[in-house]
Design goal:
This protein has 329 residues and is of the alpha/beta class. It folds into two domains: 3-62; 69-320, 2-enoyl-CoA Hydratase, Chain A, domain 1. Helix content is 50%, strand content 15%. The protein has helices spanning 3-6, 14-32, 35-60, 65-72, 80-87, 129-134, 142-158, 175-179, 182-193, 210-214, 235-242, 249-256, 260-265, 284-302, 307-320, and strands spanning 89-94, 106-113, 116-123, 162-168, 200-209, 221-225, 229-231, 271-273. Strands 1, 2, 3, 4, 5, 6, 7 and 8 form an eight-stranded mixed beta sheet that branches. β5, α10 and β6 form a beta-alpha-beta unit. α2 (14-32) packs antiparallel against α3, α4 packs across α12 and α7 (142-158) packs parallel to α9. The termini are far apart.
Length: 329
Amino acid sequence: MSGVDRLNVPEFERPIVELEMKLESARMDLANAKDDARILKEEEIKHLEKDLKKLSDSVFGNLDPWSRVQLARHPNRPLTTDYIKALFDDWQELFGDRVYGDDPAIVTGFGTLNGIKCFVLGHRKGKTLKERLECNFGCAHPEGYRKALLKMRLAEKLGLPIISFINTPGAYPGLEAEERGQSQAIADNIREMATLKVPIICLTIGEGGSGGALGIGVGDRYLIMENSYYSVISPEGCAAILWHDAKKASEAAKVLRLTPNDLMELGIMDEIVPEPYGGAHRDPRKALDIVKATLLRHLGELMPLEIETLLDQRYEKLRKMGKYQEVPA
């Protein structure tokens, strides 16, 4: 990865990356150094390592809600397609909604996780600029949600558990999406997912924005990665509405209570999935292993349940979501 690519990171992480690059350079110099120069270079490396640890602890140990939003959007963070490629064998992608067309912003298909046949779906953001444009940066059209529901019904017919990877700023808000029934498509998915007779695990791996997330986000277990967020609106959108200034997004992030800890307190999420120190982007392989173990554990708990029990628990979970306070008239 080039220096330019490495610096395409949130502002608060940039000093850490710059120090890491300096440390790498010093280690390369050490390999070619001799005698006194080698001793000096070793001392420099020790100081750099000490400074790096101190800086990393200071930054990653005090992340505010806005920082977590930035990490959720990190350009090097593992995406749905990374999890599918790394965790599922015998992957077979499915396309189209049988009504309008195929939406690349939603990926669906069959795969095998440690010998367990599953149906997998999720938001696809894309890695290159071309891919991101094709996927609308993970913002799905109605045909994407209709595709997801059509394939989930197939999974139900085959008796396969469903795993949903959520990572979207929100559903596509354009005129053409509204013309093709965006709100109805999302509403249909929410209703139908609540009654599908197979286990459903929903994992937010980055952004969980509004109806875009809910459209493939109803199930039996609600999991969220440590540096992800889940919210009714993006911080920028909230700031634009409340203060008519999108630059106040950091303030909005605090008000929205969108962090994993907030969501656990509100009874929305069931579990926070830990990430490698500093975020999933810093050790993708370890992050993938953690997610794999977590999914297998929850599948092991859900798959033995009778369908009636599964649906009853799902209903009770939905009914208990959120907290409210009654205010005297």
